[in-house]
Amino acid sequence: MKLHWSQKSSYNDGKFTLTVPFNFPEFVTPAIRQIPKKERIQLNVSSGIASGIVYQAVSHPFQESKRDGGHIGLLYEANVMTWSHTDLSFSYGVSSGNIFGSALLQSPSLYDIDQRDIFCIYLFPGSQQGKKVFRKEVIFVVDISSSMRGRSLESTKNAINTALSKLSPEDSFNIIAFSDETFLYCTSMVLPSEESIERASEWMSKEHSEGNGTNMLIPLQKAVEMLSNTPGSIPMVFLVTDGTVEDERKICEWMDKRMKNGGSLCPRIHTLGIGKFCNHHFLRMLAMLSRGEYGAACDLDTIDSQMQKLFSKGLSTILANITIDAFDNREQIEVYSSCIPDLSSESPLTICGRCQGSFPDTLKAKGILGDLSSVIIDLKIEKAMDISLDKISARQQIDLLTSQAWFSENKQLEEKVAKLSLRTCNISEYTRMILLEKGKIERDTDTTGARKVSKKGDACKLLDSAEPKKILLQILTVGFGDLLATAENICPGSEEEILPEVAEMLNKATSNCCGRLCRHCCCLCCIRCCSKMSNQCSILLTQLCGAVACVGCSQLCALCCPQEG
């Protein structure tokens, strides 16, 4: 069985880390007599960096088989009696002390609908200790409506307390709480002394008159107004909410106008959405327009960690107002992000897009450092020979274009996202995943695995017919928010049902299998949305999917049908 997947490497303290689980449940490994087996792991690293890389923290005794600049080949082979139960872990660092970057360029594949070249520009913060970060003026804008009661609000308070303790003495802060009313901790910015942080913690723990509504525009306007005159510092707003409001596009239009008319360092809006009732695409768009960062905590257990990650990233900005000289020619170059976010010492920055015609031989990135001096960084152009840039950039492209399609209400952008989702097998708001019985699928597929549909109704007929058997999988995207749930102050997570343990599902499924189902291999297909279904139905079908999937999935293909309803 061969598996293909894509995952994001974690980045911490100047090192990238890849972790692959090898500790499988017992029922996954067949119960056979103890005979020697050969275990083999081949690991090829293409860092996209011309300079050398240093690897460390390797979980298995790899032997280096090749090394060429930013490319490393590692091999592990061993005769074992039982398969490894040690998760594969591999870390590597990039040897550079200063901020640096490069650009990768790649021609599209023959089957790519978009025949423009793909580029990926990245900037690394470097590993130099004691980098000068910006002096910060920070305002936390926190939703305290009734739906935030309990774990959501407590986790938010704890994360803010931790963030306040990390501020420098020359920084300043404030807190604005909102529901259908707005509450200010202080009428002016406050220095982060031990006394002021303790008072702020007590103020957050105090009972405010929690309203039943959510008015987001007024507190955001108050925060931005308080940060309108902050010379020598970078102003930041951290917005935390679990709900949706009706004037979200109006908020984005206001911020877009504010950025265009603002000074050199306009307020950055860093956003975090809790649960699935908030409009995550609005929050991403608001952050994008202001050069901020977006984060999501779809699970209550991840609120604290995701908030800490967002706060740390925003508060460790080392390069702001980044521009790339070649991007001035917008007719030939499309950048997926409408505004380039700032570079943080916590993580590298990636900028992807497409270009028509010849790409410049050299690029220059410009920005402002923490001491407010300007810097120019030369970016070397390299051909990406063994890196699939279209697959690497697909997730970022889908997310950013979906937010832009929502903001502009552009149907053409929605269609573009749907086609990209089908071609790259990435989930999107405009596609759905379905499990089809492979033996019943016609063989009229193209080279990408996409099912050809000749007429508008063909795909719908396929779904409505008795054959092939199909299972519509649970919606895995974040959605565009839920105004009704927000108005009714439904708490995040309260509507979710607990799914059976995966191991229990698979054991039940395999116990009655008797080999009969194994003759009918199944495949996953991605289809255009043609129907709506309740979460309860989705959960039920997901359970059925787990039972069918025990026999193994053979291929990923795509099926397109018109959107209905």
TrEMBL record:
InterPro entries: VWF_A, vWFA_dom_sf. Residues 137-310 form the VWFA domain. SUPFAM superfamilies: vWA-like. It comes from the Eukaryota. This is VWFA domain-containing protein. It comes from Gossypium tomentosum.
